[in-house]
Structures are given as structure tokens and as C-alpha cells.
Amino acid sequence: MLKVLRFAATAVLLFTAYFGDVIVFRSRYSNSLLFRAICDVLVHGSLGFFSSIIFFSIDNNYFSLEYDGTLHIVLCTFFSSIIDIDHVFVAKSIYLKDMVNLKHRGVFHCTTFWLALTALLLLYSYIKKRIEVYMFSFMIVLAYITHHLRDGTRRGIWLYPLGSTPPVDKKLYYFILGTFPHVSAMLFKRYKRYFNYPTLEDTFTV
User: Fold this and answer.
1) Which domain holds residue 86?
2) What is the pLDDT of residue 96?
3) Of the candidates 69, 81, 114, 201, which lies 20 to 30 Å from 138 by C-alpha distance?
4) How many domains does one find in the chain?
5) Which regions in the chain score pLDDT beneath 50?
């Protein structure tokens, strides 16, 4: 059953990635800034959602005390969508016409920032042996990788202080998008035995 779910979620993930961009950038309503903004956020959130579904279809402790799968799927979806909030900070405006004409990207679109953050979280989770922080780190990784990859097909990946890469090839984008959740889940399962499993009393303490 989980194999079927995994296959279906991967297919829907790639379908969403392709046709989501068609709807956002090549549909009859694409000239509307509001339409593009709403659909763009929905596509980013959907990529995070289906990536986390794939992740948990490989891990068989979805409803365990150590980490609630439903909660983490919601978190991954949320972070995948909310990254674009930095458009407001850079534009210093809440108007869409200002947010789509930025001269540079915000910090949440800097892959180096998220790499540093998740590296610190993973280090902390290892030192403290906290399985829930370890899981949370993977959800953030899935969120920003799916978001940055999709944006990267147009603007490249921003790796401060090195600058931005050339735009990501679409075929490479689909390949990484389709395989990354699987690889992440296998890495998570491989190393989670090094972490402690909390009791009910300390599940929500850090």
C-alpha cells in the first residue's frame, strides 16, 4: 500500500510541478498579478505537501509518538509557501506591483541561509539526541529545496557569497524534484537510530 502511495505521490508531484507552471505563467489569466501570486504560492505549497507525503510513505512510523507525521506534513507545506514572504521585506511594500519588480532576492531565497540553518538544527538534534528536531530539519530541507529548485529554473540557485548559478535545466529540475524526497527519507531512516525517542512528557520540550 505504501509503495502505491509513494508512486502516486511522486507522479502527482511531477504533474503539479509541470502543469502548475503552465497555469501560473502561460494561462489566459497569467497577466493578472493577483492570479499569478496566489497560484504561485499554491504550487510551492503543493510541492512541499507531496514531497512530505513521499517522505512519510517511505518511513513506517507515521503515527509514532516520536514525530507526528500529519503535523510535519503541514509544517513542510507551510514553509514551502511562506518563503515568498521575504518579497514583502525586500519591496518594503504590500503591493504586488512592487513585490514583482525586485532588484534582488530576499534572504529566504538564499539557499546558503537555509543550509546553515538546517546544519545547525541537525547538529543540535545530534548533540541533544532529539528525534523531533531531527525530523523538523528534514521538513525544512524539503520545503526550501522544492521552492528554490522551482524558482531556480528561472533565476538560478542563490549561493551567497558565490552568487547565483545559471538557471536550472528543467529536466534536471524534474529529476531532482522526483528523487529528493526518496533520498531524504532513506537518509532519515539510516541515521535516526542514533537519536533518543522522547516520552509523552518531553515530546514538546526542546
Assistant:
1) 2-197
2) 82
3) 201
4) 1
5) 63, 65, 199-204, 206
